[in-house]
Amino acid sequence: MKQSPQDKKLEELLRSSALVAGGFMGDDTRSVAEVIEADRAVLHKLGANTAMLAQRMRELTKLAETGLGTWVEASGGRRVMVEDYKGNLTCPWPHAGQYHKRVTTLENTKTQQTLMWTDLNVHLIEAHGFFEGKGSAFRIEPEAAVKILFEK
Fold first, then answer.
1. pTM above 0.70, yes or no
2. Counting beta carbons within 10 angstroms of the beta carbon of residue 113, is it exposed (0 to 12), middle (13 to 18) or buried (19 or more)?
3. d(Cα 109, Cα 106) in Å, to the nearest integer?
């Protein structure tokens, strides 16, 4: 399918390092639409959706804020921590969107699995269904996210 000029411009921006080091697509050769569709299919298979992931991620970030940069116990053998940085991150999609520059880390203390995300990641997942391309610094694998966020 032929890309519209807007889609082509977005694809170029996501592959560049103009907004984030290494770009949002990493070394993924698939189109943005293919990445989004593949990740949507994984979520569907697991009985999950972007809204429920984003909601849980926001809840955990809010909980972590109470620890002021230290680990905070969360339910189900998990702990969470947030690190704040100066500035904001801009959404690459063509709409107004600035997101606080902070990184939330969630760890399952039983399995030692971790998941890291930024406030921009939460927005990209919820609003655009975009988990970033394979090889990008903040790519979130949907299956791993569902597992660490929701498994008991």
1. yes
2. middle
3. 9
Structurally, how many domains does the chain consist of? 1
Considering only CA atoms, which of 144, 92, 94, 87 is closest in space to residue 115? 144
Range list of β-strands (E), 8-77: 72-74
- Pull the structure tokens for residue 2: 């032929």
Q: What size, in residues, is the chain?
A: 152
Q: Amino acid identity, residue 7?
A: D
With a pLDDT cut of 70, the percent of the chain lying above it is 94
Angle at alpha carbon of residue 32, lines to 27 and 35, rounded to 5° = 75
Q: Tens digit of pLDDT for each residue in 89-103?
A: 889 998 878 999 999
Averaged pLDDT, 142-146: 97
Q: Kindly state the tokens that stand for 130.
A: 């975009």
| DSSP SS3 for 84 | strand
pLDDT digits (tens, 9 = 90+) for 102-114: 999 999 999 999 9
Q: Can you spell out the DSSP letters for 89-147?
A: EE-SSSS--EEEEEEEEEEETTT--EEEEEHHHHHHHHHH-----TTSTT---HHHHHH
Range of the domain at 12: 5-150
